[in-house]
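User: Sequence recovery, please. Input:
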């Protein structure tokens, strides 16, 4: 979907600031948010695509002002309330308890799941594959020329706005993978063939952007691509 989260190619936001020796977490609460999101996904409460779509639905000002893990927290709260696992009242009471000097936040005691923690450690360490079997043959092969669709869907998509309607070349085929566009909305995994595609910089940024040079590579699902006759 189009929104303020899709910042690629937009001007006026200044350079990306890289912090030297940046820590994995800047604050203790960020560790808790990371663990909560991973734990919820591991238990099947929501998918990674649902989670990304929840972040996309943050208000514009909130998104731009928020830090990375504030985005995670907002997405987590949205999904847990939408799925009936947490209420607005619960969230409000937690905030009140944290702010009250005489009522510090007390985390819930462990539920005693001896399998969840090892599964999380393995998943975080090695990643969870999105590759799925399919009987459908790929429409493209490395070396083919294609064009990305010029689309503006209301649903979640992984094709950024700056790369839509652009000519590209197929560089690699990764097999079939879960389609984020359906998986984010509870419509099934609908696996599609996934490709690495190359865009020339001038195709993306225009002929006057000589200082950019080089090329851009994106991973693109098959339904994002059109054949060029």
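Assistant: Recovered sequence (229 residues):
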């Amino acid at each position: 979907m189009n929104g303020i989260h899709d910042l690629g190619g937009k001007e006026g936001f200044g350079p990306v600031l890289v912090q030297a020796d940046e820590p994995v977490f800047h604050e203790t609460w960020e560790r808790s948010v990371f663990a909560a999101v991973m734990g919820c996904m591991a238990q099947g409460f929501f998918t990674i695509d649902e989670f990304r779509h929840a972040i996309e639905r943050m208000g514009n000002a909130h998104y731009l002002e928020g830090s990375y893990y504030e985005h995670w927290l907002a997405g987590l709260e949205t999904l847990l309330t939408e799925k009936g696992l947490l209420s607005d009242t619960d969230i409000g009471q937690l905030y009140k308890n944290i702010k009250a000097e005489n009522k510090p936040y007390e985390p819930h005691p462990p539920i005693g799941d001896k399998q969840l923690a090892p599964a999380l450690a393995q998943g975080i360490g090695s990643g969870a594959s999105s590759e799925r079997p399919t009987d459908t043959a790929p429409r493209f092969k490395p070396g083919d020329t294609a064009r990305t669709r010029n689309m503006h869907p209301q649903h979640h998509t992984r094709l950024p706005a700056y790369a839509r309607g652009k000519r590209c070349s197929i560089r690699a085929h990764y097999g079939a993978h879960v389609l984020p566009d359906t998986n984010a909305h509870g419509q099934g995994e609908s696996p599609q063939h996934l490709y690495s595609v190359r865009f020339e910089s001038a195709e993306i940024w225009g002929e006057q952007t000589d200082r950019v040079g080089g090329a851009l590579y994106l991973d693109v699902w098959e339904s994002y691509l059109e054949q060029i006759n």
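Residues 196 and 219 are 5 Å apart (CA to CA).
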